[in-house]
Design brief:
alpha/beta, Nucleoside Triphosphate Pyrophosphohydrolase, Rossmann fold, 2 domains, 8-stranded mixed β-sheet, 6-stranded mixed β-sheet, 29% helix, elongated
Length: 288
C-alpha cells in the first residue's frame, strides 16, 4: 500500500487567558479538522505544514514541538500525516475572519480546546489534540546545521576557508531557507568560512537578518573547549529561534556543549532542538 505523506499543525493562541486552537471545515467531506495537506514534490514536510496552514487559514505560523505521526488508510493508500504544535510567527496576525472561503475550506474558527475536542470529526484528531495540549507551552528552536555541499578540496586552489558551495550545495541552501522559515529563525550564527555563510545566505536575505560570523566556528579557528562553552552559553541564554552553521570536525564540540549526542549530520542536514527553560525537550532532523 503506497504511503501518501502530508503535514499539518495544531495551532494555539492564548485568548482571554485561555488556550484556543484553530480548526477548519471542509465542505467536500463535511468534517472539522486541523489545517493540513499533502507534500508537494521536492518539498520538505515542515515547509508543507506551514504552507498548508497559510493556504487553509491565512495564518503565518512557526513550528514548535513535533507530535506523533498519524497513519490511516485512504482510498489511494496509507495517509501519513506529520504534525507539530504551532503558534503565529513573530509579528504575524492571528485574525482568521478575513480568510477568503473557498470550495476546499468554507469555515475557519478559533475555539477553546474543549470546544475543539467536541467539534473534531475524527478520533485520531482528538488524540492528536490531547498530545498537543500536553506540550502546547512554547519552546524555542535551536537549529544546528552542517554546511551544504561544497567544492572538493582537490577542485579548489584557493584558501580552504574560501571554498564555495557546489551546484548541489546551492540548491540545498535554497531548501534550507524554507526549513529555517518554518521555525521562524531570528538569529543566524555561522562559521566565517564561505561554505557556511553561503549555506545560510538565502534565508538571512529573505528574513532580513544579518548573520553573525564567528571564526571560532570555522575549522581553522575552532578550539574544542571554547566551542563547547559557546554552545552551552547559547543554549542557556536562548531567547529567540537561532541557527548555528558549522563544519563536521567542529560539530562534536557543539553537541558536547549542548549535552546532546552527536548525530553525525550529513552536508546540508540540520537538527532542531526544541528548548524550554534551558532544557532540550524534543529533537528532530531534516536533510535539505
Amino acid at each position: 500500500m503506497p504511503e501518501i505523506p502530508a503535514a499539518g499543525v495544531v495551532v494555539f493562541r492564548e485568548h482571554q487567558d485561555l488556550p484556543e486552537v484553530v480548526l477548519v471545515h471542509r465542505p467536500k467531506y463535511d468534517d472539522w479538522s486541523f489545517p493540513k495537506g499533502k507534500v508537494d514534490p521536492g518539498e520538505t514536510v515542515p515547509v508543507t505544514a506551514i504552507r498548508e496552514v497559510r493556504e487553509e487559514t491565512g495564518l503565518q505560523v512557526a513550528l514548535g514541538r513535533p507530535l506523533r505521526t498519524q497513519r490511516y488508510p485512504v482510498e489511494a493508500g496509507q495517509k501519513v500525516v506529520h504534525y507539530w504544535v504551532g503558534r503565529t510567527a513573530a509579528g504575524a496576525d492571528d485574525d482568521v475572519d478575513s480568510y477568503q472561503i473557498n470550495d476546499e475550506i468554507d469555515e475557519v474558527e478559533w475555539m477553546p480546546v474543549e470546544k475543539a475536542r467536541k467539534r473534531l470529526t475524527y478520533p485520531h484528531d482528538r488524540e492528536t489534540l490531547q498530545q498537543a495540549e500536553d506540550v502546547r507551552h512554547p519552546t524555542t528552536p535551536l537549529v544546528i546545521l552542517r554546511h551544504a555541499s561544497s567544492l572538493g578540496r582537490s577542485a579548489w586552489s584557493g584558501e580552504d576557508s574560501e571554498r564555495p558551495l557546489d551546484d548541489t550545495g546551492r540548491a540545498q541552501a535554497v531548501t534550507l531557507a524554507g526549513l529555517l522559515m518554518a521555525y521562524d529563525i531570528r538569529r543566524v550564527i555561522t562559521s566565517t568560512s564561505v561554505r557556511c555563510t553561503q549555506s545560510v545566505a538565502p534565508y538571512a536575505g529573505l528574513a532580513g537578518i544579518a548573520s553573525e560570523q564567528m571564526r571560532l566556528l570555522s575549522e581553522e579557528g575552532a578550539k574544542g573547549g571554547s566551542v563547547s562553552a559557546l554552545a552551552a552559553d547559547i543554549l542557556r541564554d536562548l531567547a529567540v529561534p537561532t541557527v548555528i552553521c558549522t563544519h563536521r570536525p567542529v560539530l562534536p564540540w557543539v553537541f558536547e556543549g549542548l549535552g546532546v549526542r552527536d548525530p553525525k549530520l550529513a552536508k546540508g542536514e540540520l537538527m532542531v532542538l526544541h528548548v524550554q527553560e534551558g532544557e532540550v525537550r524534543a529533537v528532530e532532523a531534516f536533510q535539505a
